[in-house]
Amino acid sequence: MAIRRLLLPTTLGLAHAVADGTAGLLLGGLPRMMPLSHVSALVMLYNLLAFGCQPMAGWLADRLRRPREVALVGLPLLAASLLVMRAQPILAVTFAGIGSATFHVGGGALALCATRGRASGPGLFAAPGVAGLTLGGLLAATNHILIWPFLLLTVILGVAIAALEAPALPYDEPRAEPLFEKHDVVMLTLLAAIALRSLVWTTLQYFLQGRLEIIFALGMAAASGKLLGGFLADRFGWRRWTMGALLASALLLNVGGGQLWTLMFGVALLQSATPVALAATVQLMPRQPATAAGLALGLAIALGGMPMMGGWGFTLGSPPILSLIALAAAILIGLALTLQKRKGAYA
Predict the structure, then answer these.
(1) What domain range includes position 65?
(2) Closest CA to 18 of 107, 84, 119
(3) Same structural domain for residues 14 and 156?
(4) Comparing C-alpha atoms, which of 255, 157, 285 is closest to residue 293?
(5) I need a labelling partner for 218 at 20 to 30 A (CA). Which of 39, 182, 249, 263 fits?
(6) pLDDT (tens digit, 9 = 90+) per residue, 257-291?
(7) Whether residue 211 has pLDDT greater than 90
(8) Sign of dihedral through CA atoms 342, 58, 25, 300?
(9) How far is it, in rounded angstroms, from Cα 308 to Cα 295?
């Protein structure tokens, strides 16, 4: 793959780190500005906007045929959230949620189109996000609310994204035959697999609240897994890599014995399935890349977090249960990829 094709996804990934870092800084700083009961409500508002609105934002980006412009709308909204966070925290969370939703769908669509449907593009885009979110949350938790570096990076990366050559977009391509048999069944299966993988990660974060050094280590492991997972899946085959990685993750989460290094490897393997999940979702909707990104990065992630919001955290947090959830995700994503008609692509 030509190096120049990776330039836009890499730049989008760096912007993703700043965008998610902004959200982490904002949400992590809320407890110092208001009672915890209000913080919980604002976190729920952010999640509703940032994840639940992604399919709608993706539909709009595809309808307008302007994923880059939609992504670039999100960055100043995220920057504005930091500027008003102390005076108007509700407005700040609203800006951050809408900005995150629009940036994710536009950036995800561009990253995949830039690498022509390969998993490496989504990997380059997704990996820095978890690192940025971890760093932003860590800065807030240690009372280092550094606003101006985030604002400066937002401007620089926004200009870079606007200046880089746009990839060919699929909107004017002839309507092709469906890539998958039983399209709706495969889509539901794939989204369920993404939701289950997300649930494992969300549960781990819930149980490790307050243990900043472990959260940081796992965040870096998750970022590494997402980055390498896309390239490795393209190299060894989507189905082969994702099923193997998720099965190994299930084993490590169950028999890790509380060792940090086994947990880090388990998390890295768990998150290495993310690029394939996004790329496969877009393959199902080849002429709607932003909508597909919204479903995979937004709706499915939101569904994966619902059990935690319902108070099931302690029930789901034991290693055997987490392993079973990861195992179920492996089976579902393997099934979804197996149903694909072009059998050689995801061997």
Answers:
(1) 3-172
(2) 107
(3) yes
(4) 285
(5) 39
(6) 568 899 999 999 999 999 999 999 998 898 999 99
(7) no
(8) negative
(9) 20
Letter for the amino acid at 244? G
Residue 340 phi, psi dihedral angles, 5° rounding: -70, 140
| CB-based burial label for 33 (10 Å; 0-12, 13-18, 19+) | middle
Shared domain for 127 and 249, answered yes or no, is no
Closest CA to 219 of 43, 21, 56, 7: 21
Task: Quick: pLDDT tens for 108-117.
Answer: 999 999 998 8
In a domain, 149, yes or no: yes
Residue found by looking up tokens 């509700």 in the block:
90
